[in-house]
Amino acid sequence: MGRPRGADARPRRPAATGNLLHGASPSLRSASPALLCALPLLSCSGHQISSWSPSGSLTWEEPQDGEEPDGGEEQLADAAETGGGGAEDGGAASDAVPALEDPATALARADRYFAAGDMTPALQAYGVVFATGGSYEQAWALYRIAWCAVNLEQLEQAVVRLEQLLRMLAAPAGERERLLRRDAVHDLALFESMRADVPAADAVARIESALEGEEREAALRTLADQYRAGGRLDDEATVRDRLDQR
């Protein structure tokens, strides 16, 4: 199966500010956490998860072992009634949300919402992709859900989504999944660096609980680099000290 529709054209910031391609733009990867937080929209890249609420909730619980993802028919119906929002603005979010929708159509709609800056309906649409898509489409949707959370300034939720994604991709099935995991490893550190209220030691501990080996070291180096870019030199020193202990 190829990459989901819309995967090649990575999510964009609003048209007025042009494209900012995560993974291809040094300016994004080296931007200070303060600048990233100040941007109204950030882009994401990527290429599987727990139970998802198509209502757009970012607080769903993980399923127990062996539990199938919840399709959420009632919540899908709720989403259909609300239409996902954003129509009043005359933007890309004017099309209604079908109660039952194939993953490719839902993904294309979600990408339009995201590109238009309509994060709440984007979350709803990515939720449909998660509830109805295959494992790779679920992975793609979850990664974008994490970036929706960043755009909504819900950094804790964004970190949680990436932690879930990393668990799902513990054994990547192919090159697409491997590349997605690589992006998630980087962005876990990026998101942690953007959390001004989280001490460096706590960010290090969280990364170390999610990653091992070379991935852990790479993420910690990213964290240190981002702290430095953001002027958090004491926090950078904390991370560098931890790296020296390895």
Keywords:
single chain; about 250 residues; mainly alpha; Serine Threonine Protein Phosphatase 5, Tetratricopeptide repeat
Tell me what you see in this structure.
With 246 residues, the chain is an all-alpha fold. The protein has a single domain, classed as Serine Threonine Protein Phosphatase 5, Tetratricopeptide repeat (Alpha Horseshoe), CATH 1.25.40. It contains 11 helices and no strands. It is globular. The termini are far apart. The model is unreliable at 1-94 (pLDDT under 50).
Overall strand count:
0
Number of helices: 11
Average pLDDT level: 72
Biggest sheet statistics? none
Give the CATH class.
Mainly Alpha
Q: Unreliable stretches, pLDDT < 50, 5 or more residues?
A: 1-94
CATH architecture: Alpha Horseshoe
Give the CATH topology: Serine Threonine Protein Phosphatase 5, Tetratricopeptide repeat
Brief summary:
By secondary structure, the protein is mostly helical. The protein is 57% helix and 0% strand. It is globular, with a radius of gyration of 18 Å.
Write the layout of secondary structure elements.
Layout: H1 26-30, H2 33-38, H3 73-82, H4 103-116, H5 119-132, H6 135-151, H7 155-168, H8 175-193, H9 200-210, H10 213-229, H11 233-244
Helix pairs in contact: 4-5, 5-6, 6-7, 6-8, 7-8, 8-10, 9-10, 10-11
